[in-house]
Amino acid sequence: MKYNLAVFLFFFTVCLSAQETITVDYQNTPLSEVFSDLENTFNIKLSFNAELVNNRTLTLNAVDASLEELLLTISDQLFLKFNKASNRYYTVTITKRQLTDTQELDEILIEEYITSGIRNDGEDSSIIISPQSLGILPGLTEPDVLQSLQLIPGVQSPNETASDLFIRGGTPDQNLILWDGIKMYHTGHFFGTISAFNPYITNQIKLYKSGTKAKYGDRIAGVIDMESDNSIPEKLEGGFGFNMTHADAFVKAPLGKNASLVCSARRSITDAIQTETFSNLSKRVFQETKIANGNRVFEDDEVTTTNDLFYFTDLTAKAMVDIGPKDNLELSSLYARNKLDYGFLIEAFEEASQDQLNIVNQGLSLDWSHVYNDAFSHDFKLYYSNFDLEYVGSNRISGELDDQLDKTNTIDDFGFSWDITGEVSPRSTWGLGYQFSSNHVEYALSFSDTESPEENFNESQVDTNNAHALYLDYQYKLKQKWFVNTGLRTNYFSVLDKIFVEPRVQLSAHLNPFLKFKISGERLHQTVSQVVEFNTQEFGLENQVWVLSDGEDIPILKSTQLTTGMIFSKNGWNLDVELYYKKIDGLTSITLGFDRRQDFFSIGESDVFGLDVLIKKKIQNYRTWLSYSLINNDFLFKTINNGEKFPGNTDITHNLVWSHTYEWNHFNLSLGWNIRTGIPFTRATGTENTPNGTVIVFEDTNRARLPDYHRLDLSATYTFKLSKKDNWKGKLGVSLLNIYNRENVLSRTYEIRQNTQNSEAELREINKTSLGLTPNLVFRVQF
Question: I need a surface site. Which of 168, 305, 477, 663 has the fewest CB within 10 A?
Answer without folding.
Answer: 305
